[in-house]
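The data are passed on as follows:
___
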Amino acid sequence: MSDPAGEVVITERQGPVLTVTMNRPKVLNVLDEAMADALVAAFSGLAADQTIRAVILAGAGRSFMAGGDLARFQADLPGAPQTATLLIDRFHTLMRLIKAMPQPVIAAVQGPVAGGGVGLAFACDLVVATQDASFLSAYTKLGTSPDGGTTWSLTQLLGPRRALEFVLLNEAINAEAALQLSLVNRVVPSGELMDVARTLAEKLARGSFGAQKASKALVQAATQGSFGEQLELEKRAFVANAGTADFGEGITAFFERRPPKF
């Protein structure tokens, strides 16, 4: 575990599970250049490390992330386009890393989540939220439009009409509503957030690395191609996995009526 004193991002490894925690609790973990760089550094290289089988992304304090650091813009409004470029380039690098990595990423979300925090949470593969979590776009209220893949994720999860409603009206969605809309996977009491996220991550970590990698890629591809193209991608992935030791173990365990040991 990295030294939390002064660290804007803390990493902690427990066996095959890595927890990455945004650590600016006094300002609700809003994103500045330093935290964006630290997050990119934490996620860089994970794709090639098959000893890490699942990742939890969390936020210290009472909020997962409340968006970008608006004080950076207030300090130099004429330079806002340049500041936005610096922040967004870093933020989008993080998004690409999360989407491209083979390991599943679980967002452990609490409190008010706004702006870029919404995009970050929904870019993750699974989302566990506390009962007090809420999600707010906030962008158009500030006179700008979303970033962080927010419009892509919301449109995929909600459809275009509900996505546009969420962005334009800036009405917060509470945790239970988010669960009903399939924006999150689990809603849990506040005190159980990290325990539930770790239990879920440990269960994923026991799975087949290759099978989970292929499944994550296939689900992402399903939002872009035709049905026929998806059938071909599924065939290629299945055939490739059929030649692995994990597949042999899975088949053997099935007939021996025991859990597989990947």
Residues 80-100 form the longest helix (21 residues). The chain has two domains: 9-205, 209-255. The radius of gyration is 19 Å. The beta strands are 9-14, 17-22, 54-59, 105-109, 112-114, 126-130, 134-136, 173-174, 186-188.
